[in-house]
Specification:
Oligomer: heterodimer
Radius of gyration of chain B: 31 Å
CATH class of one domain in chain B: Mainly Alpha
Number of helices of chain A: 14
CATH architecture of the largest domain in chain A: 3-Layer(aba) Sandwich
Strand content of chain B: 5-15%
Largest sheet of chain A: 6 strands, mixed
Family (chain B): Belongs to the binding-protein-dependent transport system permease family. HisMQ subfamily.
Shape of chain B: globular
Pfam family, one (chain B): BPD_transp_1
Order of helices and strands of chain B: HHHHEEEEHHEEEEHHHHH
Radius of gyration of chain A: 22 Å
Main location (chain B): membrane
Strand order of the largest sheet of chain B: 1-2-3-8
Structural class of chain A: alpha/beta
Helix content of chain A: 40-55%
Distance between the termini of chain A: 63 Å
Number of domains of chain A: 2
Subcellular location (chain B): Cell membrane
InterPro entries (chain B): ArtM/GltK/GlnP/TcyL/YhdX-like, MetI-like, MetI-like_sf
Largest sheet of chain B: 4 strands, antiparallel
CATH superfamily of the largest domain in chain A: Periplasmic binding protein-like II
Number of helices of chain B: 11
Strand content of chain A: 15-25%
Chain lengths: 340, 418
């Protein structure tokens, strides 16, 4: 009888607890447990990948570090939880992670039916194809009758079906659960083409048995705005995520870098810079953080340009151009609303 | 049932629940219902049932409430929505543009059932062969069978599947330099390509002949059994059956060809830009999964079969030999039928294991129920609770149906004792 009572109590406790964690507010629960749980890519060069020492690098990984900097003034207070494309939304919905920062496409159905919010876009991307050079293919339009490897549970899988249907081309899809298996199957010759977001193509090509034997076709067949996702219904947390990205954009625009931020704090008379760095106004406090929140982000992680170049741009093996990810003032799409 | 009053006097006694006279007659003493073991037992069971019910009710209610609060879509309406993705190997027709998530579910289900059925048939044949071989008097045969069993049942199935898949991919040529057998059979990394037989519309006599052949064979077998029971004479069931099942369609084919109808056209695979087109394709994922499941489960079935045969008393074999039966008929007619009583229950478990293990298809990209439904559909719709619940219900149903069928069979072969 005792065991029955214990089992009952445990069952009730477990079901009731699940409800309580959500009501408390994500920021408070993060502060209480002392670290941020960040759902990251299990291994995509430039976006989220652990090295041999278990140290994570990447654009999406650095975004979580920026949040930890803003909240704790300590970039080590992040725990990265690698999630496959297939498992990522369930992990976020169930509260296993506080934020999903793993090159996830913002689409309407995900926004409206998954109980998620996409507060910002930290990388504008589009889907492309990679093929073996020896096939002699120069355009995706020539892929009639090809086998295409793709990762399941992605927008990629849907765009692929749309593209071949719209162009009246036949194809055979071979879908795998993880990015790793997908690319291995392509590399070993199971498929003629491999498809994912263009940034991912350049990243995966580095892992090919002979990277130079593969080419990326020129067609970009979709819009893939990639960004962090959070659970819907916690406006404060969504605001923190959104403004963390905007702070990094505004810092780039104002010329604040990791190197000069300390000097800027002391000597800058520019009111924009003073508001960003928290020496004027109390914007950080209104967000639920401290006034020097953006100073911490820039000091510990860097502005958007620094993070971009270090992980996917000229400072990385991927060498991706800024392109549409340049600031609005330089002809790109990245636009940080004013901090004021 | 009326009790004999001379033996038990309880019914005549006035009810005295608390004060029993010291010289109470024999029979169970009257006790308070609180201490009656039967009532207590029933009460505990009802309480446990209530507790389970309450926990389930709270859990379901809580999940629904949490989903509502988290603004996650719920309900089963998504099954009617257009899927929008493609699946490469399907038993039933599927198209991204028009098919629904419900159809995607059926695609996964039929693929799972196909692998399970083919796997069970092949594993049974291989398992019985290896199991009998383990008891062979021939040293080489016996040792080979032992090595097979010990190696294959002790390596995790997932590793074996990856081995078959990777081995197939790595050792075969690319699509453009396929191994070719003549001009009609090709083997490459994309699978095995065979000519596809297409039945002409006016060749209905062919399948009809096949059906008549099968029905005729069954009728002849029933007749042969009656004959044997009556006279002890054995009729050549195998030869007659083969003649009926193969001979009749061949005859029909010949007649059709004579009157100028080509009954079967062959669709040959031809080389396209990337892949071979047309014909029939066996995908490497499918082959790897069937081979992996078959050889793994067959190792267990072999042990079940060996145990069953060894459970039959040696005297049975000796008696059969003394009556002049050859070793073959001794095994087939005396030992195996008795061994089946021991074999069938654990064999059922192996069938269920094979069916459930087919969900490891997810590791090698074969679109089974778990891969298509719990992978793609779950992720595209985000309705984890519904999708997981449906999938669990499906595996439960498949397993229960298999177990039920095997139990019916077991009842037939079980020892009927007087």
């Amino acid at each position: 009888m005792k065991t029955i009572v214990a089992a009952l109590a445990f069952g009730l406790g477990a079901t009731l607890l699940a409800g309580a964690a959500q009501a408390q507010g994500t920021l408070n629960s993060i502060k209480q447990k002392g670290y941020l749980s960040c759902g990251s890519n299990p291994g995509l060069a430039g976006f989220g990948v652990p090295d041999a020492q278990g140290r994570w690098t990447g654009l999406d990984v650095d975004f979580c570090r920026a949040l930890a900097a803003a909240i704790f003034n300590d970039v080590t207070k992040v725990r990265f939880i690698p999630l496959s494309a297939k498992d990522r939304f369930t992990a976020l919905q169930s509260g296993e992670v506080d934020i999903l920062s793993r090159n996830t496409t913002w689409s309407m159905s995900r926004d409206t039916t998954l109980g998620l919010d996409f507060p910002a876009v930290n990388f504008y991307d589009g889907q492309g194809f990679m093929v073996k050079k020896k096939l002699g293919v120069t355009s995706a339009k020539q892929l009639d009758g090809a086998s295409v490897c793709t990762q399941q549970g992605t927008t990629t899988e849907l765009n692929l079906a749309d593209y071949f249907r719209a162009n009246k081309l036949k194809y055979e899809v071979v879908a795998f659960a993880s990015a790793d298996e997908t690319f291995k199957a392509y590399d070993s010759g199971r498929c003629d083409a491999f498809t994912t977001d263009a940034s991912g193509l350049y990243a995966e090509r580095l892992r090919a048995s002979a990277p130079d034997d593969n080419i990326v076709l020129p067609e970009i067949i979709s819009k893939e705005p990639l960004g962090p996702a959070v659970r819907q219904g916690d406006a404060q947390w969504a605001d923190i995520v959104r403004w963390t990205h905007y702070a990094m954009l505004n810092a780039e625009e104002a010329g604040i870098t990791q190197a000069n931020v300390d000097q800027m704090v002391k000597s800058s008379d520019n009111p924009d810079v003073k508001r960003i760095l928290g020496t004027e106004g109390k914007y950080g406090a209104d967000l639920g953080l401290t006034n020097d929140w953006a100073y911490r982000i820039i000091k510990l992680v860097g502005n958007y340009a620094e993070v971009f170049e270090r992980n996917v741009g000229q400072g990385s093996p991927l060498k991706i151009q800024r392109g549409v990810n340049a600031l609005w003032s330089k002809g790109g799409l990245q636009y940080g609303p004013p901090i004021r | 049932m009326p009790r004999a009053p001379s033996l038990h006097h309880r019914r005549e006694q006035p009810p005295l629940p608390t004060q029993l006279p010291a010289d109470a007659p024999s029979g169970p003493p009257r006790v308070s219902p609180l201490y009656d073991p039967r009532i207590r037992g029933a009460a505990y069971q009802i309480l446990l049932l209530l507790a389970v019910g309450v926990v389930a009710w709270i859990a379901i209610g809580n999940a629904a409430e949490n989903l509502r609060n988290a603004r996650v879509a719920s309900g089963f309406g998504f099954l009617g929505n257009t899927a929008g993705f493609d699946v490469n190997q399907t038993v039933i027709p599927f198209a991204a543009a028009t098919s629904t998530y419900g159809t995607a579910f059926l695609v996964g289900l039929t693929n799972t059932l196909m692998v399970a059925v083919i796997g069970i048939v092949l594993a049974t044949i291989l398992g019985f062969t290896v199991g009998v071989a383990r008891l062979s008097p021939n040293w080489i045969v016996r040792t080979l069978a032992t090595v097979y069993v010990e190696v294959l049942r002790n390596i995790p199935l997932l590793l074996q599947l990856l081995f078959w898949y990777v081995a197939v991919l790595a050792s075969l040529p690319a699509a453009r330099d396929s191994y070719a057998l003549g001009t009609s059979v090709f083997l490459n990394q994309r699978g095995l390509y065979l000519p596809k037989p297409l039945l002409a519309a006016d060749a209905w006599a062919l399948p009809l002949a096949l059906v008549i052949g099968i029905v005729g064979t069954l009728a002849f077998r029933a007749h042969a059994r009656r004959e044997q029971a009556r006279t002890g004479r054995r009729l050549p069931v195998l030869a007659v059956g083969l003649a009926l099942i193969l001979g009749l369609p061949l005859l029909a084919y010949g007649v059709l060809a004579l009157i100028g109808i080509a009954p079967v056209a062959l669709d040959f695979p031809v080389k396209g830009t990337f892949n071979l087109r047309g014909g029939m394709q066996l995908y490497p994922e499918f082959v790897a999964l069937v081979v992996g499941l078959t050889v793994y489960t067959a190792a267990f079935i072999a042990e079940v079969v060996r145990a069953g045969i060894q459970a039959v008393n040696k005297g049975q074999t000796e008696a059969a030999r003394a009556l002049g039966l050859q070793p073959g008929p001794t095994m087939r007619l005396v030992v195996i039928p008795q061994a089946m009583r021991v074999i069938v229950p654990p064999l059922t478990s192996q069938y269920l294991n094979l069916t459930k293990n087919s969900s490891l298809a997810v590791a090698i990209g074969y679109p089974d129920l778990v891969q298509v439904f719990m992978g793609t559909v779950l992720n595209q719709t985000g309705q984890a609770v519904e999708v997981v619940a449906i999938t669990m219900a499906v595996y439960l149903t498949i397993s229960l149906v298999t177990a039920f069928a095997m139990n019916l069979y077991n009842r037939r072969v079980a020892l009927i004792e007087r």
